[in-house]
Structures are given as C-alpha cells and as structure tokens.
Amino acid sequence: MIAIIDQMKELVDNALANGSPCILATVSGAGEPDIGYKGSMMVFDGESLAYWERTKRQHMKNVKENPHVIVLFRDTKTKAAWRFHGTATMHEDGPIRDQVMARTVKEELDKDPERKGAAVVIRLDKITNMGGQVLQSR
Questions:
Q1: May I ask the CATH architecture of the domain 6-131?
Q2: Which are the contacts of 38, defined by CB distance < 8 A and separation ≥ 6?
C-alpha cells in the first residue's frame, strides 16, 4: 500500500523553495532516457505526485510514449532522500489539469504566462530509499 507520509509531503511540496527541486527520470518508447529538474513537483494525494509540464519537450514526449517514471528527491538539510517509482498520466485539459495548475508554485507557473502547460499525475507503485530498500509498494 502507498501512503505518502507527512514528512514527504512537507519536503516535496517545498522542495523548490528549499533549494532541493525534484528530479524526474523518463524513458522514451525507443529506450532513450531523459532526466531533469521539476520545480513544480507536489504531492497530489496520498498515493500520487504531480507536476506542471510547462516546457512540453522531451519529458512530455517520453511520458506519452512510456509512462513509467522515477522522481528523485534529496534534501541536504534534513538528509531525507527518496525515489518515487510510478506511472504518469498526462492531463492536457479538464479538472485534474486545473487542480494541478492551481497548486503549482508561483515561480514555475510564472514561466508559463499563457498557461499552455499540462498536468502530469504520477500514481506511485513503489517508494524506495537511496539504497534501493523498498519503503512502500502496492
């Protein structure tokens, strides 16, 4: 069972402000990996993360071709670190897109002034520590 704990919610939701933005790893349908920071990463609900996909480049293409992703979080101040493994779903319109956009940190949303981005919700299958130990799983 996946149940995101309060510490994870607090740290992930404030990751950008704390100088420790999450890193998203994706892989294309052809197997080409991509990795990058997602300053808008948030805890969406008790078993999902979400972010605002404003660049609409390689990560968006990869998620559409292969929804399996990993989000890496590490906070140097608290030494908390997790890997969130899950399946991403793109929401280019509709109520979920609106919910994620409404909760996206201002710094990231300001980089998409025309609000052309999409919401990506990642339903978690597993949470591991940096050593690969499974902390939670479905």
A1: Roll (2.30)
A2: 21, 22, 23, 24, 51, 59, 71
